[in-house]
Amino acid sequence: MNTIVETARPVSRKLAVGPRQIRFTELGSGPAVLMLHGGGPGASGWSNYSRNVEALAQHFRVIVPDMPGYGQSTKGIDRADPFGDLANAMYGLLDALGIARAHAIGNSLGGACALRMALDQPERIGRLVLMGPGGVNMSRMPPTDGLKLLLGYYAGAGPTMEKLRAFLLGYLVYDASQVPQSMIEERFLASTDPEVVANPPLLGPIKDPIKIDFLLDPRLKELQVPTLVLWGTQDKVNPPEGATLLQQSMPICDVYLFSRTGHWVQWERSAEFNAVAAAFLQEDRGNTTQAVA
């Protein structure tokens, strides 16, 4: 007989992290899990993980921030080192919450942020779950059409509903019929926030290759943080070949490939994602709830 555990309602608030205000939503109790969203136009923490938070909150203290540049958090990212800037901000959020060690789940840009966090301070990350992460082989391969559309969203004539619809329906997911009109409208509204338009989070190329390609970082081969990589075989934003490259480069790295799935594994295959992510994270024997000294 299955027992359904009821969770409390999610709580959203803002905390000061250096000069920034970071908005986040929290649900559940237990080991801390930081869930980091992707970098597409109009993205935010809750919208990216709306199909996952309640399931994971049955086992964990789930923390879902709007990363800097997105949602209701302070706008602006250091374009010279976006992954490093985001990683520092997310460690600042954990410090403000008194959390010394956490698991990290990240999709796309959030995956790049999570991996950078693990490389910079591996003792503070219990386990990693990465879905189609950015920063894999990006210095040595031309950008995909999906990535070019993402990076060019604010260029030229600026953001339009047509650009957003093309990205969400043509590149984010495999089955466009599953994307509701309400999501398109919500993300377009968020993407045209005047503060975002004035300071887009992702815009144009990054000059230093090591800042955007983890395969060039010598620390990757030494990283002892257990990692689960989940990738859709029809991902048109970040090529699924990145899964194999990460597994070949990381000492402890499991890979799951999802057929008939695009860039948004956690949304398109939510039931499987929730099950495998929870099982993987529960294997950790470390204490992810210890307070910051």
Detailed description of the structure:
The protein has 293 residues and is an alpha/beta fold. It has one domain (11-282): 3-Layer(aba) Sandwich (Rossmann fold). The chain contains 11 helices and 8 strands. It has helices at 45-48, 53-56, 82-96, 109-120, 145-151, 161-172, 181-191, 194-198, 241-249, 265-268, 270-282, and strands spanning 11-17, 20-27, 32-36, 61-65, 102-107, 125-131, 227-232, 253-258. An 8-stranded mixed beta sheet has the order 1-2-4-3-5-6-7-8, with helices on both faces. The radius of gyration is 18 Å and the shape is globular. 48% of the residues are buried. Mean pLDDT is 93; it is low at 1-5.
Instruction: Give me the CATH fold name.
Output: Rossmann fold
**Gap between N and C termini:** 42 Å
Q: Using DSSP, what is the number of strands?
A: 8
What is the CA-atom radius of gyration, in angstroms? 18 Å
CATH architecture: 3-Layer(aba) Sandwich
Calculate the mean pLDDT score and round it: 93
- Which term fits the overall shape? globular
Q: Output the structural class.
A: alpha/beta
Strand content: 15-25%
Order of helices and strands: EEEHHEHEHEHHHHEHEHH
- Number of structural units classed as domains: 1
Work out the helicity level: 25-40%
Biggest sheet statistics: 8 strands, mixed
Placed side by side, the strands forming the largest sheet appear as 1-2-4-3-5-6-7-8
The total count of helices amounts to 11
> What is the CATH class designation?
Alpha Beta
Q: Spans of 5+ residues with little confidence (pLDDT < 50)?
A: 1-5
| CATH superfamily descriptor | Alpha/Beta hydrolase fold, catalytic domain
